[in-house]
Amino acid sequence: MNTMKLVTIITESILEPKVVEDLTLLGARGYTVVDARGSGSRGMRSADWDQNQNIRLEVICSEQVATIILEHLQKEYYSNYAMVVYVSDVSVVQPEKF
Fold first, then answer.
1. DSSP label of 72
2. How far apart are CA 70 and CA 11, in angstroms?
């Protein structure tokens, strides 16, 4: 098993195309996107109306790529959009895929 980073991004669904493009350009070799709903500092978010939806994007990558992604997201999105990003260590069986 090898340790890599799991970058989790919870944000507004309208950002999906742009954030996915950014992730690819920043070195992510893949990602997963799922619908997300809940409540936080910006209020209740549900998935019942397209403009009000949140998504959760997950990327498994090296520590270097994770750092690049975090810096970019903070610079480009944090001040104008609802976004939460966190990083976890994960153990992967096939690190060459990431």
1. H
2. 14
Question: With contact defined as beta carbons under 8 Å apart, do 29 and 61 qualify?
Answer: yes
User: Tokens in use for 52?
Assistant: 């009000």
Report d(CA 52, CA 46) in Å as an integer. Answer: 6
Query: Rounded to whole angstroms, what are the CA distances from 12 to 53, 66, 84?
Result: 6, 20, 10
Summarised one tens digit per residue, pLDDT across range 17-54 is: 999 999 999 999 999 999 998 776 666 545 455 566 89
Specify the 3-state DSSP secondary structure of 41: coil
> Domains (ranges, CATH) in the chain?
2-93 (3.30.70.120)
d(CA 1, CA 53): 35
The whole-number pLDDT of residue 38 equals: 77
